[in-house]
Write the structure tokens for this entry.
Amino acid sequence: MYSLLRKLLFLLPPEVAHHFTLSSLSTLNKLGLLKLIKPVSKANQEVEVMGIIFPNRIGLAAGLDKDGEHIQALSNLGFGFVEIGTVTPRPQAGNPAPRLFRLPKANAIINRMGFNNKGIDHLTDQVANARKAGFEGIIGINIGKNFDTAVENAIEDYLIGMRSAYRYADYITVNISSPNTPNLRTLQYGEELDKLLSAIKKEQMSLVNSQKKYVPIAVKVAPDLEPIEITGIAMALLDNNIDCLIATNTTLSRDAVVGMKHGAEAGGLSGEPVREMSTEVVKQFYNILKNQIPIIGVGGISSAKDAQDKLDAGAALVQVYSGLIYEGPSLVKNLIKS
């Protein structure tokens, strides 16, 4: 059924189809129909990561529900956790359209959205409303910096995001790897990374004292990393007692989509072309981190085998995004069953 629906959705511009699909899911959820088809996690699928008990290992990656307006509906597809955002301190429109492109021959997507969102206050209001309505699922909040905040001042944007998100999130992800915000990826390296993580950790400890609860911090990195860069990032995560690593974001590489329609568009490439890259990055990080810092593996997961490859490489949890667009809700059900 989804293959037919996908054909119809793919007749629409990608961003239009995106909003239509999310709105439709929320409507179905309000009617109580999603609960009827929601796959149920078994007790033996529970796993503890970052001190949190996840009902299953399958999560939704950030980027699909940037403003947290569809939390309940997306969770009812069967996800063990939902990550919302990326959200910035102030609302921003993002990059000019068109900024989202499908590459069906590669089961891939290129986006240069540019952190379009309604701001952290709107997102936390949505989380509060979901909790008031009885939602008890696990929510990660992914934070970034505003595009017009100079990279040398980025730390303050991340601290604003942390302070606002802390009471609402089960965990917070620091996104320093989007290719669509100028110079953002420079925060992944050397002294800049250490300064950021040190400030993040200090703020986390302050919030623990003021709010009397511990909210873990994850850091999301790119797949376009050399081994020496992976070592440097891993050591910085360990030195600053960061709680989790998310590997990986989208890639700038176009090797797998050369000659395809939209293959040369600027932005981050996701989907099947990034699968092996991200799995290799997970493996390299795990070889350094071992079990000291858990890893959430994301990138190109469109089957149970893809998810298992991430887990075998060292991931404790996995997330999907592009695979959901191409495979539909049955992907989540199949991943949970496997």
